[in-house]
Amino acid sequence: MEDQEKTTISNKKATKPKAASTVVLTHDSNPFTTTINGIKKVFRFNISNLVGTIVFSLFLGALMVATLATMALALVAFIIQQNVPDSAPLIANLPPEAVSFATNMSVSSIYATWAIGLLLAILLGTFIQAIQLSLVAASANSQAIGFGDLLQQSSRRVLPLLGLMAIVAMVIIASIVVLMLLSQITGPVIAVLIIIAIVIALYLYVRLIFATFSIIEEGLGPMAALKRSIALTKGHFVETMGIVAVTALFVLAPSLLFDLLSSATNAPVSSIIMFISMIVSLIVSTIVGVGFAERFVQLRNIKNGAVVATKTHVMNYVAILLMMLGYMIASTLSKPHSGYDHPYNNSKQLEEHNRGWDDTTMPESDASSYNLH
Fold first, then answer.
1. pLDDT in tens, 320-329
2. How many domains does the chain have?
């Protein structure tokens, strides 16, 4: 009996190194294969959690929509009570119940609704992000994680993520203030400054993109996470940008497809298509986010000396060019069709149409036939 127990214990110990050895540390600079391999890991290790994450995200998203709708109702109440000019058409299109409720809201309840709603919407959005990041991070590390553990880990990362969002928001606000001050400059100088600002913003976005994963995976604070991201992306800007491009392409493709289908159908069908598009976009964005997680794990292994970096793959440049082309196509398709002519598609035609029913512009025979005199 003792020999059997010893044999069982020794077998358990022997199996541990074998399980760990199945994870091969590599550096794949190709953004397409990196993303595809990451997607395979999600389906291999966390397919049930993927479904749970999507369903739970939809539930939290519905709460966000309800929160934003309540905030919008408070805005209507503010417009009604402050007698905002030209607001009559807006109020006329609202249900009578909503107008009645908004009219009876006190000023303090309006401001309280905005404050609480904004806070709740930010918390819900951050929690959704934390869940999605935790899921793809575990998958990139070839780890299966229970849904309860996923929620618990995500909840612990909400506050650091909020701190990161606050830092980013302050930087954005400061940049907007600077641009507003520079807007006083006229001529080609302002155009050059805008181009420089866009380039700097894109560069910082790529260099700081792994700050969220540094918080999720390594438990760092906001500032430490930003520094960590800069360290990881040093010398790997192009392949990080390649992952950004591939992810954008995966998200853009179904979005374009559903936009085309929506524009080619009538209103009820179009609404259904847009609802399906929202769900598909959530699924796709959740899954392809593993590409970022894969690249983060690879760069971390390089930084720790566990993997030797390979040469930057040419497909990174291809992905970037395809992303630029994709957004050019999307921009073109989103423009209104100039060939479509509504019977009264401008104010002049509408005015002429209205004058056509004026008896002063109609022939007498026509006017008398309609008994307009």
1. 999 999 888 8
2. 1
Residue 18 falls within a domain, yes or no? no
pLDDT at residue 187 greater than cutoff 80: no
Q: Which residues of 12-24 are buried (b: 16+ CB within 10 A; e: fewer)?
A: eeeeeeeeeeeee
Q: Count the alpha carbons within 13 Å of 214 in the hemisphere toward its beta carbon.
A: 22
Q: Which of 67, 221, 225, 223 is nearest to 159 (CA)?
A: 221
pLDDT tens-digit map of 34-78: 999 999 999 999 999 899 998 998 899 899 989 998 998 888 888
Compute the distance between CA of residue 76 and CA of residue 102 in angstroms, rounded to an integer.
6
Is residue 232 within 8 Å of residue 303, measured between CB atoms? yes
What per-residue confidence (pLDDT) applies to 219?
92
Q: How far apart are CA 323 and CA 249, in angstroms?
A: 6
In a domain, 143, yes or no: no
Q: Which three-class secondary structure state does DSSP give residue 95?
A: coil
DSSP code, position 265? S
Tokens 């990041």, residue?
133
Please tell me the distance from the alpha carbon of residue 202 to that of residue 191, in angstroms, as a whole number.
17
Which amino acid is present at 227? K
Query: Using alpha carbons only, what angle is made at residue 220 by residues 215 and 225, rounded to the nearest 5 degrees?
Result: 70
**Given the structure tokens 């800069």, which residue do they identify?**
230
Measuring CA to CA, how many Å separate 275 from each of 53, 67, 247, 272, 279? 18, 18, 22, 5, 7
Burial pattern 269-283, b for ≥16 Cβ within 10 A else e, equals eeeebeeebeeeebb
Residue type (1 letter), 285: S
Based on its alpha-carbon atoms, the radius of gyration of the chain, rounded to whole angstroms, reads: 28
Is 146 contained in some domain? Answer: no
Q: Can you give the residue range of the structural domain that contains 179?
A: 157-234
Block residue for tokens 């249900």: 95
Q: Which two tokens stand for residue 254?
A: 């179904």
CB 254 within 8 A of CB 280: yes
- 210 in a structural domain: yes
The contacts of residue 326 (CB under 8 Å, 6+ apart) are 248, 249, 252, 253, 256
Placement of tokens 């995976």 in the chain: 217
